[in-house]
Amino acid sequence: MALAAAAFAFGLTFALLRPAADNEADEMAWMQKEFQLTPAQTTAIAQLHDDYFPVCMDHCKRIVQARKHLAVADDKPAAQAELTRLEAICHDATQAHLKRVAAVMSPEQGARFLALVGPKVSGQSHEAPLGLK
Predict the structure, then answer these.
(1) Low-confidence residues of the chain, pLDDT below 70?
(2) How far apart are CA 104 and CA 122, in angstroms?
(3) Which of 33, 48, 49, 106 has minimal Cβ neighbours within 10 Å of its Cβ?
(4) Structural contact between residues 48 and 100, judged by C-beta atoms closer than 8 angstroms
(5) What are the DSSP calls for 76-116, one per residue?
(6) Which residues in 47-69 are b (16+ Cβ under 10 Å) and which e?
(7) What kind of fold does domain 7-121 have according to CATH?
(8) pLDDT of residue 115
(9) What pLDDT is recorded for position 120?
């Protein structure tokens, strides 16, 4: 299921061993170059990422907790249903976030961004925001 995190959501192609602040700056620099963003677009996207980060962190936390619960649950179907529900919430929220980011870009670049990032979010582990794990 999908999960993107604030500025880290788009660190899909970077080595992730550097401190988070370096990753954020690298990711925004990559996005600015890759999608030909203006300074105003870059600032707006950075704000969208910052606003989404706590939502993303909450989704990760809840999904990880649900997975742990599923491993020990007596009622596996109910625990699995809850995990599936949380993953769907995360997926929908992430897709909405990605669309908001794409809407800041030119139509051509926004479509390219969604085509590039969209498929990569489906394999998210939820152990950390996308781009951090």
Answers:
(1) 1-24, 123-133
(2) 23
(3) 33
(4) yes
(5) HHHHHHHHHHHHHHHHHHHHHHHHHHHHHS-HHHHHHHHHH
(6) ebbeebbebbbebbebbeebbee
(7) Four Helix Bundle (Hemerythrin (Met), subunit A) (1.20.120)
(8) 93
(9) 77
